[in-house]
Structures are given as C-alpha cells and as structure tokens.
Amino acid sequence: MYVIRLTRMTILSVCVGICALLGLVWLCFGRGGEAAVPASAGAGWGLSFQQEGQAPVGNAGKEELQAYDAWFLGNQEEKKLYLTFDVGYENGYTGRILDVLKEEQVPAAFFVVGHFVETEPELVQRMAQEGHIIGNHTNSHPDMSAIRQEDAFLAELQTLAEKVEAVTGQPMAPYYRPPQGMYSEQNLEYAQRAGYHTIFWSLAYVDWKTDDQPDPQEAIELLNRRVHPGAVILLHSTSETNCEILQELIRGWKAQGYTFATLDDLCAGE
User: Fold this and answer.
1) Is 69 a catalytic residue?
2) Is 115 a catalytic residue?
3) DSSP labels for 1-22?
4) Could you tell me how far CA 228 lies from the centroid of its own chain?
5) Catalytic residue selected from 86, 141, 197, 207
C-alpha cells in the first residue's frame, strides 16, 4: 500500500512539474515563438542565432518592438544592411573608420555618449558633415533599465542631445540605443513618448574588449556566417579589429549583393 501511495505521489509531482514547465514555455514563447518584452524588470537585449545566413531570434519579437517604435531588424526580404557603431570613447580608430566609410560611400549611425562629444567635438562634427546619423547612447552610459522616473530617464537623453546640437549646430537624430542593451517596457514607452526610436541590433560579436581583441580573420568569418538580410549591425569604434577588417567586410558584403541603408530607411519600414 505504501509503495502504491508513493507511486501516485510521484506521478502527481511529475504532472505538476510538466504543467509548470509548459506554463513557463508559454509565457516565454507564446507569441509566435519569440519572447515577450519584459513588463517592468530590466533585461539585456539578447539574440539566438539558429541558422547561418538567417536572422536570429531576439528576446522580443520584431512586431512587439515596433509597437514602441523600437527596431532590431529590417525587411528580411531585401538584402539591406544597417551599419551602426557604439562610441564610448576615442581609442584612435574612429577617424580611420570614417575614412573607410567615405571611400566606400556607406552611411552609418554613430551612437555617442557625453564624454565622447565633450572630448572629440571634431570627430562628431565630421560624422555630421559626412552625412552619418549621430544617435543617442545617453549622456553618462548608465543602466537605463534601473531608472524608474521618467524625468530622470529623459534627462540622460536630453543632456546628450543638447551637447550634440551645440557641437554640430543640428538637432540630434531621434534614435536611441540603450547602454549595454539594458531596457524595460517602461524604458521603451519613455523613449517613444520623447519621440525616439529605440535601436537594438541583430548582428554583433564580442569586439569591445580592447585588451583581448578578436583575431581579424576569425571575426570576418564569424560575421560573414551570421550576416543576413535586414541586419542591424553593431560594431564598437574602440575595436582595433573592427578598424582593420571594416573595408574588407563592406566590400565582401557588397559582393554578396548587399546594399547599405540608413536608420531613416529602417524606421520608415523600407
């Protein structure tokens, strides 16, 4: 009798566990196989690359993000790429990156922070003069998902926007990238109300460790395996490897039939 009772308890426990697991799966992937935007708690933007040459799955779906004027991926039916750089400080490579972009006639978006604008105004001016978008990466690069008050959140964006306008003489473009990809649904709402598009990415790699840079050839091979139509590409301007491989990457992608478009094109739904 004891053995039978134990067996029933075991079966019941297994059933409860399965139900709980199914419930978790539904919560995470119940919307078209993609995870929902976190309701309040901060989360880091993440990607799952499941097939070479195909767009990855983000931890929020494309349509869900667009409800907040947020993007990580363009039209997957068109071989367009959107090249973006995060610019935290100057490491000696930004000018050379701009040289390559000018030679190859490729537009890019540079997401800058306050320190960079203050210390490298000539580079910021050059970005604007050569037709690149200067995006908002916040003034002090904090974890924005930890900021709950809307006025404090917007202060980070507005302070940076004022610095950029003072240097370039132009209003800042309405594109915001959360530092380290940390965001919440509340953040997306705040940015949207302020007139910003939040820009994540669908292609990136570990390029930001300046004392442990990727091997250039391995980086090219990795990025070529993962490039896909509609890719929003994130590179860091502080990377020596990126500076070395950028022209080869661009020419290789052009040879594959890709063209380069702007964030204006992306957010217009093109």
Assistant:
1) no
2) no
3) -HHHHHHHHHHHHHHHHHHHHH
4) 15
5) 86
